[in-house]
Amino acid sequence: MSDVIVYQGESGAYSHLACQAYFPDYTPLPCASFASAFARVRSGEAQLAMIPVENTVAGRVSDIYHLLPEGGLHIIGERYLAVHHQLLGVKGARKEDIKTARSHPMALGQVRKKLLEWNIRSVADVDTAGAARKVAELGDKSVAAVASRLSAETYDLDILAEDIEDEAHNTTRFLVLAPNPIMPVLTDGPVVTSFVFKVRSVASALYKALGGFATNGINMTKLESYMVGGSFTAAQFYADVEGHPDSEAMRHALEELSFFSENLTILGTYPADEIRNLG
Questions:
Q1: What is the edge-to-edge ordering of all strands in the sheet holding 143-147?
Q2: Among all residues, which ones are annotated catalytic?
Q3: 101-138 pLDDT, tens digit each
Q4: What share of the chain is helix, strand, coil (3-state, %, to 5)?
Q5: C-alpha dihedral (6, 11, 12, 16), degrees to nearest 10
């Protein structure tokens, strides 16, 4: 029996495509929610999870930043998937027949200009593949889904318009999660370290906490803040930096960060994807 990789969404989702593209020897398993995907890896039902964290057009997947520090999993890799959206309709439908298009809000945000141009109203759904399934079940020629080619095949829908994303660079970054960390060897090549932290309540704490990365020449590629504990004053930060914790520069930077932080949790150190390396 092959190993299992879980993803959020239904069969045909873009996360399903990412699983097929990067882990073809694993059996993809759909989950109703991100929390469910995390739980299945923790329980041993699955060995890996493929989780989207950001898109070049629609921005971050906000739910993930709350789950990552609490989910009990470790980041062991990153993958970038070029996202090409299709307008899908039932058999016999034409693009001119479509009045509404269903999809996940992030996908709708990536095709907003095209839908406006075609005077098609957006309807938010739980995920792209689920929207495609519902369109197939409805059998209404005026209702379409914005989803993948795999969804068209899975739910026997026609592609009414191809590659309708507003921007050619439309790409989603995924994190590969596992129950245990896999630390790359320091000399193996470029790596990314991801962590979350909460700064101490002192003047200029964030500036001081991050200063060590600048003085030690560590490139920080992502810094996101989000609220925790139901308070507008309790901000936690998620960061990606290009560096290995065993390098002298990173050790100094993390020591400085720890001094000005109430807590610091390393989520994983993993090889940088080739797309990141190419800039």
A1: 121-124, 100-103, 143-147, 86-89, 158-161
A2: 172, 174
A3: 999 998 999 999 999 999 999 999 988 999 999 999 99
A4: 30, 35, 35
A5: 10
